[in-house]
TrEMBL record:
Keywords: DNA-directed DNA polymerase, Nucleotidyltransferase, Transferase
EC class (word): transferase
Listed transmembrane segments: none
InterPro entries named among the record's database cross-references: DNA/RNA_pol_sf, DNA_pol_B_thumb, Pol_alpha_znc_sf, Znf_DNA-dir_DNA_pol_B_alpha
EC number from the UniProt entry: 2.7.7.7
GO cellular component, one term: alpha DNA polymerase:primase complex
Superkingdom of this protein's organism: Eukaryota
Protein name: DNA-directed DNA polymerase
Length: 286
């Protein structure tokens, strides 16, 4: 029976009690799927190459992002990406897929005062995902700069919102929460075993991995960068043979200014780079 803040024993009910409750007690279907059904299915599918726990969870109607972990099939790779015949490099993915799990940049229009909406990026799109105008116009009322009096004020708003969101992401990374990759365990801790990534829960043989990893943080930075890269947005639309409206010059300049700022943050991250002096450290200087 679903309940917040209670143990599994407190939520348990005899089947007859549930049957005779006149639908007042409802079975927690998601719990049974994630804790009772998914783990044995994952173990049964382990010999099948290209199968991941996230894929199996998705087929069961669960949120696949909660079950990200090593590949179920294959067993020899830590990530399993090279064993998946459908594997696509991040740089080749569509933005909707690549940035599906990032924390979205939200903004509210100062004129229509509607609820915060997701910032669309360079181009605002209609329901058919066709570009219909600049992303600096409010999607609700069409007000330029989302109701800000000028481009400078809009720049400051976007910069502040993005900075706050980035700090939240960095905090999540440096908090270093670890989660067990065994869905039947569900352990979450900030403690690290002296035996490496072994789960600390008694009787569990799962492995601990970061809940918010350096890859997640890097993907977040690339998401911010993609929002304001006008040339990239136009190139991707041209590759799909889609027409796109002309953006006012002042909008292009604002996009360029923010993109340069975000690109600087992304380039300062050592995640995607190898410092040249590492080779002299490893092999020695001549």
């Amino acid at each position: 029976v679903p309940s917040v803040g209670c143990s599994v024993a407190d939520q348990a009910r005899h089947p007859n009690v549930v049957t005779n409750s006149n639908s007042q007690l409802k079975v927690d279907i998601e719990w049974y799927l994630s804790q009772q059904i998914l783990p044995p299915i994952a173990r049964l599918c382990e010999p099948i190459e290209g199968t991941s726990q996230g894929q199996l969870a998705s087929q069961l109607g669960l949120d696949a992002s909660k079950f990200r972990g090593p590949q179920v099939g294959g067993g020899s790779s830590s990530t399993g990406d090279d064993l998946d015949p459908a594997f696509t490099p991040l740089s080749k993915m569509e933005d909707a897929e690549r940035f599906r799990d990032v924390r979205k940049l939200q903004l509210a229009c100062l004129k229509c005062k509607e609820e915060e909406a997701e910032f669309p990026g360079v181009y605002m799109r209609d329901q058919a995902q066709q570009p219909v105008g600049s992303g600096l116009n409010c999607p609700k009322c069409g007000e330029e700069f989302w109701g800000a009096p000028n481009a400078g004020a809009c720049f400051s708003r976007l910069h502040n919102r993005m900075t706050l969101l980035l700090r939240q992401c960095q905090q999540s990374y440096y908090d270093c929460w670890l989660v067990c990759e065994d869905s039947s365990c569900g352990a979450r801790t900030q403690q690290q075993s002296v035996r490496g990534p072994c789960c600390l829960a008694r009787g569990c043989r799962g492995r601990l991995s970061q809940e918010y990893s350096e890859q997640d943080l890097h993907t977040q930075l690339k998401y911010f960068e993609s929002l304001f890269d006008a040339k990239r947005a136009q190139r991707m639309l041209a590759e799909k043979s889609l027409n796109f409206p002309e953006i006012p010059k002042k909008h292009v300049e604002l996009f360029k200014a923010i993109k340069q700022m975000v690109a600087k943050d992304a380039e300062s991250s050592a995640y995607n780079w190898i410092q040249p002096d590492i080779w002299s450290t490893v092999f020695g200087k001549k």
